[in-house]
Amino acid sequence: MTFLARKSLQLIIAFFVLIAISALPSLIVRMHFVPESYWTGLQEQFHQLTKLNEITYYNVTAEREDQLLPALQPLIQETLILFLTSLAVSFMVAILYVSLFYRSGKWMRTFLRQMSRTLEMVPDLFWVILSQSLVIYLFKTTGFDRIEVAGTYADSIRFLPILCLTLTTVFFFIKWLTTQILDQEESLFLELARAKGLKNSTLFWKHLLPTMFYRFYLFFRSNIITVLSSLLIIEYTFEVQGLFRFVLYNSQMPILLVILFLVYLPIFVLDLLAEWLIPNAWKGEL
Predict the structure, then answer these.
(1) What is the C-alpha to C-alpha distance for residues 23 and 51, in angstroms, rounded to an integer?
(2) Assigned architecture for domain 74-250
(3) What would the 3-class secondary structure string for the chain be?
């Protein structure tokens, strides 16, 4: 199967799966489980695709029904800022960590692994509560009030949500990268490079890191739902005016359908570009 045919089939299957997921609320009717209503819900969702521009939601602030699609633009922007900034910072910190880990001795490696394993087990909510408590303590002791602990409908909050999502994902990345370092450091191509007198820093940045790039992409792609679930928790607890918090307060089936497609389609396009642009040599192909 060609690349284009495989991706087209994947998109078609995902299309039906997302519609099926968005119709799941129809299984509950007046707090009772009613399987027979699911088929009706599916039909309604398919019909809804022909009139997406007519979907509305109740605007609590203005106390009126508003068009959904125009209202989602600022929410998408906030979610993207949090998501992309946190991922970029997490990735850079994780790369610097494994660079240090690769060049360290046995004692330092043991210390770094124990520290990262301990911090990895910390739940998302702990970072949220800890960060808010520290900001409140800082305000009480110094009067510094430039860091918000929660958002409002009028104001955005970014620093603490980005910090917490970064802390949630960075140890997730570190664990995988450290495992890859340990698996790859005795490989034949690195032994050959060492025999030629190359330094550890050169080995890491020019030889080891490129071979892990594609595998890291596959790892992240298969675990992106974990990162998105953390983002949902953070948006809700910090009252971020983002896409995931919006759907929690507006969980009607048509709105859920739109949100699912808005989340999936950019991921699909990025995956398509990545598979196309990443060199075959990085994938281990000839």
Answers:
(1) 16
(2) Orthogonal Bundle (1.10)
(3) CCHHHHHHHHHHHHHHHHHHHHCHHHHEECCEECCCHHHHHHHHHHHHHHHHHHCEEEECCCCEEEEHHHHHHHHHHHHHHHHHHHHHHHHHHHHHHHHHHHHCCHHHHHHHHHHHHHHHCCCHHHHHHHHHHHHHHHHHHHCCCCCCCCCCCCCCCCHHHHHHHHHHHHHHHHHHHHHHHHHHCCCHHHHHHHHCCCCHHHHHHHHHHHHHHHHHHHHHHHCHHHHHHHHHHHHHHCCCCCHHHHHHHCCCHHHHHHHHHHHHHHHHHHHHHHHHHCCCCCCCCC
Going from the C-alpha of 274 to that of each of 214, 221, 279, 285, the distances in angstroms are 9, 11, 9, 15
**Residue pLDDT, tens place only, 43-74:** 999 988 888 888 988 887 777 888 998 889 99
272: left (phi over 0), alpha (psi -120 to 50) or beta: alpha
pLDDT of residue 286: 41
Count Cβ atoms within 10 A of the Cβ of residue 112 and give its class: 0-12 exposed, 13-18 middle, 19 or more buried: middle
Q: How confident is the model at residue 190 (pLDDT cuts 50, 70, 90)?
A: low
Tens of pLDDT, residues 141-156? 998 878 888 777 667 7
